[in-house]
Amino acid sequence: MDKIIRLSDGSELKAGLVGHPGSPVIMLPVAKESVYGQEADHLRLWGVDPELGQHFIDGLSDTFQLLYFDYEGQRLQHPNPDNLTPESIVQDLLIIASEMNVEKFSYYGYSWLALVGLQLAIRTGRLESLFMGGFPPLEGPYQEMLIVTNQTYQQALTNQSFSADDEQSPINPEQVDWGNIQVKISTNQTKQFVTMYQSLMEFDDREIQHKLVIPRLAFAGEKDTIVYGENFGNVTVDIIGKLERNKSALEQFGWDIEILKGNDMDHTKAMQPATVLPLLKPWLIRNLQMNS
């Protein structure tokens, strides 16, 4: 079942519900639509599965119901520069669930969409479990990401004259000078993430841990440390360092923690379906299926 849903800012998003009737529902806001041809080849260069969303759906729908949509894509197409706050995002997710007649659900998000899952968990009683990837649930890098996103926004302001027609050929990631790469997306696209991280400056992720009583897992690749150059504030976003340092504390709080091993297991590799599904599906089965 597919449905067009109007979100809190008035924009419209396509969501789908598929899978095993009567089984627990998993919300997948990471379900990007498949791309093919040259665009797919470009994504593969970066280590990204061009059929990421479909592979998550195929991998889980034999056991669970999946409420799937591409929230990041929605916000890139329909930016919410002044109001992309945790409150508005959670409102959107609950609107989507309600419009699809889903009362209770689990949530899987990666990177900033994992951060969103933590915000969802403390704002609703409708969540049955939480699966976070690529963002630590304790000592999250909110300050670092505010610096990075603000620098990105400032670059977007400077580069407004850039035309997409100026760049005809895909970039090979091995040829990118990450210290001097230029931002070539719109100011509204970038500003909305400044708004989001700015709104989290007073958020204390240690103080909210006692509110989390559902099954929950956080994971990251062992090479998930992103070093940003001068253009992005000379910031290091050390996802794996924060997760490893707080592993014992998180386990005491009731989290399951997984470190994905491999010399190539960086932020991008650890989000691909081939990496996530072998961890996600058995964990969901253990934590949800017996209660269905």
From TrEMBL:
Gene3D superfamilies in UniProt: alpha/beta hydrolase (3.40.50.1820)
InterPro entries: AB_hydrolase_fold
Superkingdom as given in the UniProt entry: Bacteria
Name of the molecule in the record: Alpha/beta hydrolase
